[in-house]
Amino acid sequence: MVNTADSAGIGVDNIGANGTSDLRSADLLLTDNPNPMLPLTILGLSVEATGVHSDSNSSFVFGPNEGFLSGDASFRSLVISGALVGGKTLTFSGDAAADTVLYKSSTVTITLDDQTLLLPPASTGGIIGPTITTDAIDIQLNHAKFGGQTIAGDFDIGQSSASYRLLPPTHS
C-alpha cells in the first residue's frame, strides 16, 4: 500500500492489509514401505486436521506513526501421530496461542500458530514493509531418522501473510 494523500487538512488516518487461509480439511501422511512385496507400511507421521483457519493482519496508523502486526490460527480438530512424534497421538482443537509448540524433540518440532515477523531496516526506504506470516501448522524436520533415511525439511499447512509498505507522497 502506498500513501499518496497530500492535503492541507485531509489525509489518510491508517492503512491495513489482511491475509486469510481457510481449509475445510488437510491431511499429510508420511509412510515407509520397506518391502513392496509385503502389505506392511510404517507410519512416520500422520496429520489430520479439519476447520483450519489462519489469519494475518498488518496496519499502520499515521499521526502516532505506529505499525501493528498480528496473526491467529484455529482448528476444529487436529490429530497428529506416528513414529516421528515418539509413537504418541497429539490432539488439539480451538484457538492456538501464538507460537504454541505442540511437540518438540531434537529432530522434530511442531508449532501451531507459528508467526514469523519480517521487520526490514529503515535503510530499505520503505520498499520492503513490515510483514507477518502465520502458519496454522509448522512442522520442522531436522535430520529426523525414519525408515532408514534421514529427513530434513519444513511443512507449512494453512499459511497466510500480510504486509504494508510506506512510501512518501509524490508531488505533482
Question: Which key phrases capture this entry?
Answer:
172 residues; 4-stranded antiparallel beta sheet; elongated
Number of beta-strand segments: 8
**How would you sum up the major sheet?**
4 strands, antiparallel
Q: What's the pLDDT, averaged over the residues?
A: 85
Radius of gyration, in angstroms, nearest whole number: 21 Å
SSE arrangement, N to C = EEEEEEEE
Global shape: elongated
Strand order of the largest sheet: 1-2-3-4
Low-pLDDT runs of 5+ residues are none
Helix proportion:
under 10%
Explain what this protein looks like in three dimensions.
With 172 residues, this protein is mostly beta strands. The chain has one domain. Helices cover 0% and strands 64% of the residues. It has no helices and eight strands. The chain has strands at residues 14-32, 42-61, 66-81, 89-96, 100-104, 108-118, 131-146, 149-163. A four-stranded antiparallel sheet has the order 1-2-3-4, with no helix packed on it.
Give a short summary of the structure.
This protein is mainly beta. It has one domain. It is 0% helix and 64% strand.
Lay out the secondary structure:
Elements: E1 14-32, E2 42-61, E3 66-81, E4 89-96, E5 100-104, E6 108-118, E7 131-146, E8 149-163
Antiparallel strand pairs: 1-2, 2-3, 3-4, 5-6, 6-7, 7-8
